[in-house]
Amino acid sequence: MRDLLSMHDLEKKDVELLLSEAAKMEDILKRGGSDLLKGKIIANLFFEPSTRTNISFQVAARRLGAGTVIFNSETSSAAKGESLADTIRIMDGYADALVIRHPQEGTAHLAAGLAAHPVINAGDGANEHPTQALIDLYTIKKLKGKIEGLNVTLFGDLAHARAMHSLLWGLAMCGAKITLVSPASLSMDEKAISEAREKFGAAIAILPALSLENTDILYMCRLQKERLGQAKGTKGAGANFGLTSALLSRAKPGMAMLHPLPKTSEVPPDMDADPRAKYFEQAKNGIPVRMAILKHCLM
Ligand code: NCD
Fold first, then answer.
1. Mutation probe of ligand 1 site: the residue of 107, 139, 166, 221 with most atoms within 8 A of C-beta
2. Is the pTM of this model over 0.90?
3. Among candidates 165, 172, 152, 142, which has minimal Cα distance to 5?
């Protein structure tokens, strides 16, 4: 039994094991699921909106024979003023694992300190989203057969997107060549870049504008509007930020476009028809990857 709180807690061999487990879960899914987690109850505690993470964790749990319960902050006693710590203690008493999303950075770590059962970080503020990064790495490996040596461009609100923070570490760990492109006021934290360079010798370039000629994987994200309001100097940031047909016309035919979703104006809807758009496939990979994560944390 173990927590999954941050990509920084995983070693490369853990990531490789999770990705190969996820591939095995695809076979289990083809056979209609398994009873591996029969008798277990997984509790989802979501204090922020979610479609994919919430639902795919429920589906993943059920495909492995586990039951699920959902805590919704708007319809529970949190709305009456119950503290986060009390909520975590109560849910820990009811379930065998907690999947938690919260707007405050560090909440998953706080939960892990209070809970006897494994805690899975489903997004803590702008900090991290490790299960999304594992889905992203799995998708890249599945599409390209490898991660090492690929040119991966991370494009978007790199200051506030937790998916980007977890993915930067995962890509550096796996030996990808990384290019960061964002509006000037929404750049990746310099400390995160220098840590990834120091720990993995990662090749990380920073460019002021998107250019796709050499890109194998274009990973985009939306402006994290819910966090922009709190951040200084970000008013109006990213107003003209997004992918255009002109940019895409210069990309390699084999480039893959990924996105954690939800996408907004940064990806015009007509891009969905481009064969390079792989984000719906990526979202579907959330099921086998989260099945592998549940197995890793519960067994
Ligand atoms: C992401 C998140 O919540 O950080 N969504 C997701 O889990 N797929 C990305 C986002 O909200 O932009």
1. 221
2. yes
3. 165
